[in-house]
Amino acid sequence: MENPYNTHLDRNPANHQPLTPLSFLRRMATVFPEHTAIIHGSLRRTYKDFYERSVRLASSLAGLGIGRGDTVSVMLMNTPAMLECHYGVPMSGAVLHSINTRLDAKVIAFQLDHAEAKVVVVDAELIPLMQEALALTEATPYLIEYRDLECGGFSPQVAADSQSGVASETTLTPQCSDYEEFLAEGNPQFDWLMPLDEWDAISINYTSGTTGDPKGVVYHHRGAYLLAQGNALIASMPKHSIYLWTLPMFHCNGWCFPWTMSAVVGTHVCLRQVRDEPIWQALDEHNVTHLCGAPIVMSLINDAPESVKRELGRTVEFFTAAAPPPESLLADMKTAGFEVTHLYGLTEVYGPAVVNEWHDQWNDLDAATQAKLKARQGVCYTPLEGLDVMDPETMVSVPHDGETIGEVMFRGNVVMKGYFKNPKATNEAFAGDWFHSGDLGVIHPDGYIQLKDRSKDIIISGGENISSIEIEDVLFSHSAVAVAAVVALPDDKWGEVPCAFVELNSDCEATADELQSWCRERLAGFKVPKQFVFEAIPRTSTGKIQKFELRKKVRTELS
User: Which parts of the chain are coiled coil (predicted)?
Assistant: First the structure.
């Protein structure tokens, strides 16, 4: 029998438009045109200005012939231009490709070629690196140089020529424009392009490529729209929230917060470099309400000299991802005025898709129990439809016992379209109609998931699976340990044994024997690290520990 609610009730332009976060900015430019949208040093930009400049960028890109299906790459710091690119590039119909500013030239070149970049917008400070990368590419994109006036506005060569007394008007190559001049050529009344379908790509973000070439993760307009709104709900962001950019905007499009802030008519406080003094200054002077970052950003804030810290007199919401912060750091952050919320996600799910939703009654528990609860990754983000831990072979959910390990799986509208030009990897990632994260975890009886390891980081010793995260949690509980990372060390007898890399707090000391005894008191004997290495631990630009570098070191130097 035909469903009567589907009869003569068809979709049409009047009742169905594709969802896109670009509409947030247009709305706020109309409703709150004079509200401050961007703060960057002495610069203040209203929503009217923000919108007009984004439209001008779209218009100028269209003037170059850029349109639907083209890629515009950007390598920028957390500056106003980066925010404008998050709107102006997709307004032209193109796909935004944000490049990690700390990559080497070879990896940048791979991304530019793989994404088929037609245009590159690059910060003046990064021009030499970009030119080195372009020398390795087949692509010949049009170059646009952004000069940040809040840091002098000059590219390195201009500054060098100026110091040497040589007059140099520009360092721009023949196929290159100045960003401000490029925008000035655009039409502020340009009829920018809505997506034809909300499934259309809005951006591409590349994974770290730790096991081969980076994979291009494609986001669609619908997912960006929903995750942006989900951020506002999860973060309880009221109208006129003020967001400090300590999270790189190149990382998962800044977890979609460039679009979130327009949804709540908020203010972006740009921060070109993540350093303790500018952070504390911005927190105080601009009444910042929210910020995000890895635990290393919390450590930077917490470890700042007393002369740098400010008395905030209010609670600031801090959202962190990656490994759970040590209990002592969480306590210090709370004392300083920060409420820390633990998130979890991956590039493939637009950044954060899981949140450790806190229950008020948990505040009455002792500190140790609270720390254990905070160590859990949590439950579905508002726009995520499915989160489970499954046996990847049978695709059957594991028991909710907090002990049985399986693979964390995602399903919903904030899961990527797939990997660009990589159908094999896409099909593998979506096997069984779930996204396979590669993370191993458990589900507790209350439905909260907790990570136990990456599938490639699990240590198999004498046939027993050992969670490196479990060992790291024990090491973090030692007062002298600032950072810990555990990887597998090849062993003739057991196959693999745990090896711990440790960074100590600056004012503390600890020996390998002391830490080994500490672990032995808290772990089964086969889980206790057999070797300790005290040295700086390599991290990505977003603060994540690079275990692949540690595994390489173990294989080449310690085996």
Answer: none
